[in-house]
Amino acid sequence: SYAPALRIEGESAADDVRLMKDAVAALGETSEIFCGAAGTVLRFMALRASREPGRHILRGERRLFERPQEELIKILRQVGVSASLGEDALIVEGSGWRLQGDTLMVPSDRSSQFASSVLLNAWELPFDFFVSRGGAGVSEGYWKMSTRMAMDLGMKIDFWDGDFRVPRGQKVSAAACSIEPDMSSAFAIAAVAAVSGRATLTDFPAQSLQPDVQFTSILSTMGAPVRKTPAGLTVEMAPRLNGVRVNLKSSPDLFPVLAALAALAHGPSDLFG
User: Fold this and answer.
1) Long-range contacts of 224-231 (CB under 8 A, 24+ apart)
2) What is the distance between the alpha carbons of residues 226 and 228, in angstroms, rounded to a whole number?
3) 75-85 tens-digit pLDDT
4) Residue 44 gets which letter from DSSP?
5) The pTM is what?
6) Lower Cβ count inside 10 Å, N or C end of the chain?
7) How distant, in Å, are the alpha carbons of 145, 217, 254 from that of 137?
């Protein structure tokens, strides 16, 4: 939405992606944006909509607004934007960002998405933008993905002690952006192969910042043959599937499939974190 000519390669047809595309298209066309049950869409689009003058209503399922969203109110007020949360909507109203202090304080103890949303909406600002991330800093892997993508797109970011500064007037300079496959979805397919056959995941990255990429080492530890080739990542049925002990603090999306896989394994498994 900040660079309409940017070409995105590798996007999926998942609900969150479809809802995000519809939300971006609705920006400026209507005052209402539908977020479904997608926390990513609500959190990223709340800050995106707040850059545009006017009144914006971000609606979604009630379950979405039962999740941690109060941080959005705290952030928006610091950039001079009025915001209120209801049972099924977030109402955002203002005339664009007007920083109320020297530094924007962003809570990061319940989700990294609030900081990511601030960063990904810091294009073309008329002032230098200082941000301090407070709290324990959960989901650091996803925060690193956001900063890597922003820099790949051309944003200059200065970092120190967990805080960062985005100089004024940053513009998207990249012509294209390539998106990795979603690792938790890839794990579901790989898990099926580990118990009943063989699968090759094409265009699998040689390196990834996604925390869920640890599924490859988990499967190897459990006894499934896993190998990376120029064609992608190949997973084959394990001669014997063994239990595993894994800390899932940074990759909780692996838990449901791994729990099912552990039930088919020989011996106990310990999934914690």
Assistant:
1) 224/190, 224/193, 224/194, 226/190, 228/204, 231/200, 231/202
2) 7
3) 999 999 999 99
4) H
5) 0.85
6) C
7) 14, 25, 20
